[in-house]
Write a structure and sequence with these properties.
7 helices, alpha/beta, about 220 residues, 6-stranded parallel beta sheet, binds flavin mononucleotide, globular
């Protein structure tokens, strides 16, 4: 039996401020999958992380806006984070990038080494997947371990049941599997720290101080 400290804690939020957001629906569904898998969900709203437009002049006297302080606190309190983000014009919403920029100004820089999983929902056929590729860029730059598989829900306006589940059975299973395999990795990193060194190596490559590219 795992103690509460050993259970995985995952921050989940939707990057949409819209009341009837499809990404918020997806974030809520994500939370139920995590709980079903035995994890603890820290569910958040994007509005909690709202920040003024980045302006370096505001950084005098080590100023950090409340939204960035809150996001940092929640990042540090959890083992990983999951963002369900809309795609705006082929990219991430400006409100999300702005918050990431503010949070990146803390030292130590809070995204570094944190595991993340990216998801999207859109009424379009692409499901907002293009936006997730743009979201990977700052997160990877900041050292987050962004999970390779991303989930994008296409035709989101028709994809949910009235109870908020994904109607298509195959897609629903893929969604759950994506989350569970991510949780398995986060769990391995939390409980077996040696994996942090092992998983970045090429298969068959022996760690060597001369050729090691990572550390
Ligand atoms: C400014 C803007 C740009 C958008 N650009 C895209 C886009 O590039 N690709 C896309 O699939 N949907 C795009 N959309 C449509 C959104 O995917 C749609 O409004 C979606 O419902 C937003 O997510 P939400 O339901 O979680 O709020 C755009 C919407 C807005 C407001």
């Amino acid at each position: 039996m795992e103690t509460k400290e050993e259970l995985l804690r995952i921050l989940v939020f939707s990057a949409s401020l819209r009341k009837d957001s499809f990404n918020t629906k997806l974030a809520r569904l994500t939370a139920t999958v995590i709980e079903k898998s035995g994890g603890i969900v820290d569910y958040s709203e994007m509005s909690e992380f709202d920040c003024p437009s980045m302006n370096q002049d505001m950084e005098a006297n080590d100023f950090h806006p409340d939204g960035a302080i809150e996001f940092r606190k929640r990042l540090l309190a959890n083992d990983a984070f999951i963002i369900c983000s809309p795609e705006y014009n082929g990219s991430m919403p400006g409100v999300l990038k702005n918050t990431i920029d503010w949070v990146s100004r803390f030292r130590p820089q809070p995204f570094n080494g944190r595991h993340s999983l990216l998801m999207s929902a859109s009424p379009s056929m692409g499901g907002g997947n293009h936006g997730l590729w743009s979201l990977r860029v700052p997160l990877e730059k900041l050292g987050s371990n962004v999970y390779p598989a991303m989930f994008s829900l296409a035709t989101a306006h028709k994809a949910f049941t009235p109870e908020g589940k994904i109607a298509d059975e195959t897609l629903s299973k893929r969604f759950e599997d994506n989350i569970v395999t991510f949780l398995n990795l986060v769990e391995a990193a939390k409980h077996y720290p040696c994996i942090k060194n092992a998983w970045v190596e090429f298969l068959g490559e022996k760690p060597d101080v001369v050729t090691d590219r990572v550390e």
